[in-house]
């Protein structure tokens, strides 16, 4: 266990040396199985990598502005802590340290104070009231409520899209051929080349002046539509594509 603590302190010292030219953290064993970690005057900006069997922690005169939530909870054998001389910024992030200090007043040799904001400058962190952190709770609850609303909206949109897709898949398209179309010959369904289309249109316009119904076109080639396959085509459209074509009984087999 002692060797693991020494390795952790060496990692802490190496990181401290990489960040600053100040002296690294110093580690020394404390009987019977404790460990003293001295990182004072090391110009550190955060606490990390502390050995779990640390019993004495000296972190005064650094550049700490806050403490990571849960950092001290792992140090069950901690007996002495020094955090004075750090420019702590007392906002919502300092709430964990304030709560920890209130529960462990006997472990702190000198109470740390706030350096900012100006309204609480030089105030001991443990003296901050619960009302001071009221806005933090509201911010968290507002953020949580916003996340819930967004999640509900996303779920609603997904359900709506799934319902629309299911409805589209189950829907049937029905084409009705009314009685007024009963005299329309199947030849009108075949594609025409541009010249022939113009000829049919001109003849249709001439004949439509003398009759109220559509006339047959006699000069076209044989229709491309095989009327014998019409029932099979209608059945395939209905079964595979949900397209239903309704033809009056009197015209269904009239051709």
Automatic annotation (TrEMBL):
Residues 86-137 form the LRRCT domain. InterPro entries: Cys-rich_flank_reg_C, GPIb-IX-V_Complex, LRR_dom_sf. Gene3D superfamilies: Ribonuclease Inhibitor. It is a single-pass membrane protein. It comes from the Eukaryota. The chain crosses the membrane at residues 144-165. Its main location: membrane. Keywords: Cell adhesion, Disulfide bond, Leucine-rich repeat, Membrane, Signal, Transmembrane, Transmembrane helix. It is found in: Membrane. Residues 1-18 form the signal peptide. SUPFAM superfamilies: L domain-like (SSF52058). This is LRRCT domain-containing protein. The lineage of its organism: Eukaryota, Metazoa, Chordata, Craniata, Vertebrata.
């Amino acid at each position: 266990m002692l060797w693991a603590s020494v390795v952790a302190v060496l990692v802490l010292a190496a990181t401290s040396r990489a960040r600053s030219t100040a002296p690294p953290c110093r580690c020394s064993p404390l009987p019977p199985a404790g460990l003293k970690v001295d990182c004072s005057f090391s110009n550190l900006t955060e606490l990390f990598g502390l050995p779990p069997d640390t019993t004495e922690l000296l972190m005064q005169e650094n550049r700490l502005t806050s403490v990571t939530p849960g950092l001290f909870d792992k140090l069950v054998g901690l007996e002495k802590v020094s955090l004075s001389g750090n420019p702590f910024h007392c906002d919502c992030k300092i709430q964990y340290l304030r709560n920890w200090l209130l529960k462990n007043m006997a472990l702190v040799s000198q109470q740390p104070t706030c350096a900012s904001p100006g309204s609480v400058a030089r105030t001991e962190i443990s003296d901050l009231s619960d009302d001071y952190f009221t806005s933090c709770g509201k911010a968290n609850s507002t953020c949580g409520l916003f996340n819930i609303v967004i999640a509900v909206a996303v779920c609603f949109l997904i359900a709506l899209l799934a319902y629309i897709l299911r409805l589209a898949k189950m829907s049937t398209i029905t084409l009705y051929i009314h009685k007024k179309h009963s005299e329309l010959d199947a030849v009108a369904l075949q594609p025409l080349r541009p010249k022939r289309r113009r000829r049919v249109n001109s003849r249709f316009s001439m004949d439509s002046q003398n009759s109220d119904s559509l006339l047959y076109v006699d000069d076209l080639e044989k229709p491309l539509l095989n009327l014998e396959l019409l029932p099979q085509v209608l059945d395939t459209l209905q079964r595979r594509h949900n397209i239903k074509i309704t033809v009056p009984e009197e015209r269904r087999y009239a051709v």
